[in-house]
Amino acid sequence: QVQLVESGGALVRPGGSLTLACAVSGFRLDYYAVSWFRQAPGKEREGLACISSSSGGTFYTDVAKDRFTISKDNAEKIVYLWMNNLQPEDTAVYYCATDWTAYCTVNYGKEFRGNGTLVTVSS
Hints:
A hairpin with a 6-residue loop joins β4 and β5. This protein is mostly beta strands and 123 residues long. The strands form two sheets. Strands 2, 4, 5, 6, 9, 10 and 11 form a seven-stranded mixed sheet that branches. Strands 1-3-8-7 form a four-stranded antiparallel sheet, with no helix packed on it.
């Protein structure tokens, strides 16, 4: 069964850091690229980062490029998103997803996603 399951969402104080994890099953991380995106209430989805399949090349949108880092463990089938200096505007549900391509695309995972994990940044 193909699944992506996010975890690690939490309540974080402004300026704090958090690492999210995405456990995948039913497919291999060295075959397909995986992305992270987020969606805040009442707002459009916002692509964040992507990691390609075999090369592990990483790509970031402007929102994420200075504070977020995507990485993966192919053997454990987990994709991580490390987030630094979180601010209240980072509050959102964070999703991992795939477009079923080997390389990252500008879609940042519109084809298949997990159920998300909530990150709340508040003092």
